[in-house]
Amino acid sequence: MALKLFNPFEDLIFGEQFCFLTGELTTEKMTVFPMWLMEHFKFDTDRIEMMDKSKTYVYADLQLPCAPRVKKAFEELDVKIKEAYDKGYEGIAALDDQLLFLWTGRMVYGLLYYEMQYESNRILKQGRNFDLSPMLRERFGNFHLMLQSLIEPVSFIGKKPWSIIVFPLKYSADIISYRDDAINLLFSFGVNGFGYIACLQDNGAIAEKEQELLTKMKGHILHPVQFEELYARFHYSDYILQYKPEYLIENHGNQITIEGIPMVANAQRPLFGFWDQDMFAQLLANYWQVYAIQKEDIIKFQKPFLSFLENPYTQEFIDPESISLPW
């Protein structure tokens, strides 16, 4: 008999009485963001906006209904991540990337869950039925299945479904920076001497695209302005990715295996669409606001595009120590 696992995106089930991961009836809850993280950086009482900016929540109030076994599994995962976190970059870099996928996935899915719940309630109040496109149902359903590998016999073989890169970063232990895009399943995290960027469902295509730059980065401790630019590149690359990630999902009765299918472009349609420098400059300006760098500073007529990652003339990686901006 095939292993049948809960998929909330089949019937769009986001009720607070059902475990977000297994669908079991439950009264237990867990926070979207790990408690130790919120307490350490004291953002548990801060507010976070939903995507349409009309609704906010207190971080500590973002909670997911969960079965006891799910809560226990995530608590055990938290212990492993916290132990690695305490060792800084070396600790996080040594982790299996599947653990980072699951830890990051908890936060990204938690935010997605709240977006789904909020949008569903908003539309129902208008007398309409909440629905998602078949493409989003499939994408989010696959992501949810991958998260179940924490507690169910779900394993990954061959090509992994994600791009996750970890690198040393000039951040003190007292500063945290994160960005998320729950709908597109993207996340960046910078803290305690390290940063990482996660594209949770791209089959590794974006990391492969940026491999030359990632190779140049090795041996350097990134400046925060470089970190923001790197995430902007990943974020924009995801936007112009022209192929849908596909997976070979096989159900062997008592277990499920997931393999990312390599994306192969055809002659008429490249893997990534046209890179619009004007659009990328606007995205980058949003990330560089803290440095008061505006779009007009990034892209100028008859001037090279502003970058803190690569010299526009030689394409060499820019030494982080040569950057005079504060960190």
Q: What are the SSEs and their pairings?
A:
Elements: H1 8-11, E1 29-31, H2 35-41, E2 47-49, E3 56-58, E4 63-65, H3 68-86, H4 89-93, H5 97-125, H6 134-147, E5 154-156, E6 163-168, E7 176-181, E8 186-191, E9 194-199, H7 205-209, H8 211-217, H9 224-240, E10 246-251, E11 256-261, H10 277-287, H11 295-298
Parallel strand pairs: 5-11
Antiparallel strand pairs: 1-4, 2-3, 6-9, 7-8, 8-9, 10-11
Task: Give a written overview of the molecule.
This is DUF3396 domain-containing protein. With 327 residues, the chain is an alpha+beta fold. It contains eleven helices and eleven strands. The chain has helices at 8-11, 35-41, 68-86, 89-93, 97-125, 134-147, 205-209, 211-217, 224-240, 277-287, 295-298; strands at residues 29-31, 47-49, 56-58, 63-65, 154-156, 163-168, 176-181, 186-191, 194-199, 246-251, 256-261. A four-stranded antiparallel β-sheet has the order 6-9-8-7, with helices on both faces. Strands 5-11-10 form a three-stranded mixed β-sheet, with no helix packed on it. It has a two-stranded antiparallel sheet with strand order 1-4. Helix 3 crosses helix 5 (97-125), helix 5 packs across helix 6 (134-147) and helix 9 packs across helix 10. The chain is globular. The mean pLDDT is 94.
